[in-house]
Structures are given as structure tokens and as C-alpha cells.
């Protein structure tokens, strides 16, 4: 049963000061899967991740992480999980080697020296091992953090917005590394704001206002909403958005620079409205993208929760 | 408009002032300090501190009980400086009470005192003073010479009338024990060890855990298998070592530079220092559990530091303070450590005297540590 999953949690709830930030969240992550966790800021991603690795005790709910009970066996989970915090949380007044060495000692690794040397070599930081961590750039800090949380060979990685503030090249390298790790059987739960990253995940979950709104592969999530999308192109798109929004069947317009994506559930109505309102513009049906769906989900959830911000 | 951009703009300046007030109001600890510190200082300096201590506990060894000796004792009490708290059978037990710090003075009235006075032999009464803190005994001893005259004027009647008018019929010989030269530094320098240890221990441990929380590294620690008790005690150990190094530094300086004597056991002194350091570290850990950031930790440490300096008998005589201030002072580890270290260095106390002043420090540490553990957050909840 639950041992088939790296993470298998149901009905997680958590409140802070009387405000429910996570509502009945259920998640299942398979071994070797990269599971993307998406949602706007303050939607409960970090809180959910912290509950799964035992940093927070859920108010209610149950489940297992690597086969251990998330409430009763948090200590056992911590041994086999690598958790990368949203904010860089290694010691800037220690050298790179000292940081890795500390982590290796904390996890009681027998082959500490070799593990640290190997990690430094993999990072390409052997030459700078004795440099203070505080002097590293953002991208290097992120690579060090990943190396540090992989040091004790965890079976599950929980990464909380690992690529925030990292340049595109470093992000690409980072994701290639994640896929290499997943191929060796490590499960990864990664939260992100970037759509290109979402598309690189095997599975996705979308959370807003503490509630899980969608769950599945990218295709499944897109299909589940049953949205149809048209692209509107042309010069002076600026005033058009308002006009389109007023039309029946146009449930959402999103500006994408050179084009406006107009989406709606009723395909025929949407097409008719667009032909009327956007005459003189170039219009064509396109495939609904993840981003269109996520924006749709977020706006809808605002309606459902009375626009609570 | 241009002037507003280049020069001083009132509304811009006002927006800055407003922002500072808003932030200040949110920082509860700072706000409490703004109100709390002046009030605390006013109360402590205004009411608690008295550089002219009176009613100092005095033991009397009455080897000769007569009108004259009773009169002498009552005249002494009337000065307001001496309060006879005990009557001791012999000089040895009186001296023991002095060494333990139970009394400040011992008045030794020798046998045959009255007869010697009547014979005109001008006998002497020995007034031994615990002068380790010169400011505690200074005014009292200054009042002594006039005592003889007062006894003479008041009581030399009847059989003593023949003695009146002439030379003083007897002498009171003050003897300053433990700090015969009345050097302030002999008292202050040992006291400084406790003060410096309080300051560094409380401040450093106060910052230690707050720093981890402020920098976000606490979350990382909590996600690893490290247990809270391991984090806390692991953080304390380096500071114990630092504390012992500081204690040694001060001790060496006291001996070499300030010529403070060492009459008692050094190992007992280190044992006392260890207990004292433990008590201070427990305070530091508690403060760091309460404080939200490093600034607050420093402020709380200062708030703890102030009564320690003023009420522990470090700067001002403990016996000069009113009862409530003495009660607060008695709860503070520094008070007991000051008595211990002064006792060991100046009076030659040793292991035998350690316990009386140690258990209040240990009790203090136990209570404070309980609070710390209660407040320490195991998870991020």
C-alpha cells in the first residue's frame, strides 16, 4: 500500500493564528518521480513541505513519507530526506568544506571524508573548498545547498523553490541534475514558480489558498479544465484585452507580449466572440498551455474563496 | 517644485519619521526597554542603593557583663550603624560568623574589662570588622572614636564618676580584617570576575540561538536528525570554555596587577565559577528562546545585567539596601558568586563554605533552564 509511494499523505491541515493555510491537502509521489509543486506565494507550499518532513506537526491528517508516519516517525524521516530550504540556510561563516563536513557528521556518516571530497569534486569546488561560503554567488550557493542535502544519500528530496533568483543557465543545469538523480530512483518534490520548470516535472500539483486545485501530469491537468484557447496577434493589442473580456464565452485573457491568449470552456461561443471583437486582428486556435490553466485555476480559486488574498 | 527635489523636503522628512515610529511600535521588546529601563534605573538607584549602610549585623562576645559594657553596647546601637544580632560565647565562634559573612562586626569585650576601667588601666575593646568591602564598613568605623566619649559623658556616674573628665577611660580598637588596608580594588577586582562572566556568558549564548533563527539556519538544523537538546548543549560547551578562560585571565590579573590575595582554595574557586557560568548560560539560552532577533537578545541581556550590577553587592554594599532589594539580589547568581569569590580570595574560605552560596545558584539555573526548555521550539510551529 503506502510503501508504493515515496510520499503518501491525506487530509493535511494546518492553521497559524487561527488562519488555515493548508486545507485538506493530499499528495502521492512515486519513487523516482519528479513532482512539481506549484502555486502563488503564500499558497501553503512551504507549509505543506515542512509538514511532510516533520518540521511542522499537522493539525490533522495522516500519511507516510518513505513508509514512515509523518507524525509519529518524523525523526526517522529526517534521516532519509534531503530538505533544501527556500532561503539559503548553510553557515556563511563556515567554509564550503566545513559546511559539508558538519552535515556529514550530523547524519553520522561513516565515510564522511570521502563523501565530502566527492561532493566537492562533483560540485567542481575542490579548489575553493576552504573559501567562506558567504563569498559564493547565488548560483553557487544553490549548488552547494543541493550537494549538502544529497550528502547523506537521501531517498527523497524536498526542494522549496530551489531556483529562485538563479540565472537561466544555472537553472537548466540544476534541472538536468534533478533528472539524473530521479533516474537513480530518488524521488523529488520541488516547488517552483517557473512554468518551464513545471513542464520538466513528471507530475504536478497546483495549490492556491491552501487548497490543492489540480493534480496529475501536465497533460492531465490541462485536459481536466477543458479550456479552449485562441491566440490574438496584431499591432496595438493594448486596448483589445478589455473589449475581449466583456464578450460572452471569453473567460480569461492573458497578455503574452506579442499575443493575447483568450480562453473559455465553450469553444463555439469563444470563437464567435473573438471573430466579432477582434476583427482586423490575426486569430488562431492554439493548444491550451499550463500557464493558461494555472492562471485560470488561480482566478477561479479567488472566486471560490471570496478573493481572499 | 524644483526646490523640493533639491533641498530639504518637509513631507519627505516626515515620511521618514513616521516610518521609524511605526517600526518602533512593532518592536515590542525595544518599546518595553524604552519604558522599562528608566523605571528600573530610577527605582534601583533611587531606592535600592545606599552608600551609607546602617544597622549592620554585629556579634558581641560579652566576657564581662556590667553596667558599663551594656552601656557601651547600647551606645553603639544608638549610632544606627551597628545592630547587635548575636551574642557569642567566645571569640573563635564569633570570628567564624564573621568569616561566613553572617555578621559585619564582632565586638570583643574582654573579661575584667570593667575592673580594669575602674583601676584606670584604660583597657581596650576589640572591634573586628569584615572590611573586604571598605565602603560597607567605612562610615561605621568612622563613628567609633566618638563612642567612648559618649559612654563617658552618659554613664560615668556613681562608682565611675572619678573617671569622668580625664583621659578616655578605655579604648575601642577597630581591626579591619580581610582587607586591612581598606583597598577598594581588593574588593572590586574579584567582584569583576562575576560581572564580566555575566556580561559575556548571557550576551553570547543569548545571541547564539537567535543568530541561527535570524539567518534561517535553524530551519536547516531542525530538518537534520540533530535533537534540540543536542543543539542547546552543543552550543553551550564552547562558552563554558570561554568562561573558564575569562575567569583565569581575571584571576591572573587580580593577583599580578592588583595584588589581590589568595587565601582560600583555587579549586573551590573554579568549582564556584563553573556553577556560576552554568547559571548564566541558562539565562542566555532562555533569552535567546524569548528574543525574536539578535537586537532583542542584546536588549534583554542588558535588562538582566543592570540589577546584577547594582543589587549583587558588586558596586554598592548589599547590607545597605532595603529588604525588597536584598530579596531580589539574593535571587541573582552574581550576588552569591561575589560572596563566594570574595570569601575564597580574601577570607580564605574553601570547599566547606561552597555549598551555602552554591545551592541558590543551582536552584536559579534549574528554574531558568525549565523556562528555556518550555520555550524552545522543537519544530517551527
Topology readout:
The complex is a heterodimer of chains A (309) and B (381).
Chain A: E1 7-16, E2 19-29, E3 34-38, H1 45-52, E4 60-65, E5 68-69, H2 74-80, E6 81-84, H3 96-106, H4 112-123, H5 138-150, E7 156-160, H6 168-183, E8 187-192, H7 195-198, E9 203-208, E10 211-216, H8 218-225, E11 228-233, H9 240-245, E12 252-255, E13 259-264, H10 267-277, E14 282-286, H11 290-304
Helix pairs in contact in A: 3-4, 3-5, 4-5
Chain B: H1 2-6, H2 10-26, H3 28-48, E1 56-62, H4 67-78, E2 82-88, H5 91-100, E3 105-109, H6 113-118, E4 124-130, H7 134-142, H8 145-155, E5 171-177, H9 184-215, H10 217-223, H11 228-256, H12 266-290, H13 294-311, H14 323-331, H15 333-347, H16 354-375
Parallel strand pairs in B: 1-2, 1-3, 4-5
Antiparallel strand pairs in B: 3-4
Helix pairs in contact in B: 3-13, 4-8, 9-11, 9-12, 9-13, 9-15, 11-12, 12-13, 12-15, 12-16, 15-16
* Radius of gyration of chain A, whole Å: 22 Å
CATH topology of the largest domain in chain A: the name is: Rossmann fold
Indicate the overall shape of chain B: elongated
The overall strand count of chain B is 5
**SS elements, strand count of chain A:** 14
Low-confidence stretches of chain A: none
Radius of gyration of chain B over alpha carbons?
28 Å
Distance between the termini of chain A: 38 Å
| Residue runs with pLDDT of under 50 for 5 or more positions of chain B | none
- Largest sheet descriptor of chain B: 5 strands, mixed
Level-2 CATH architecture of the largest domain in chain A: 3-Layer(aba) Sandwich
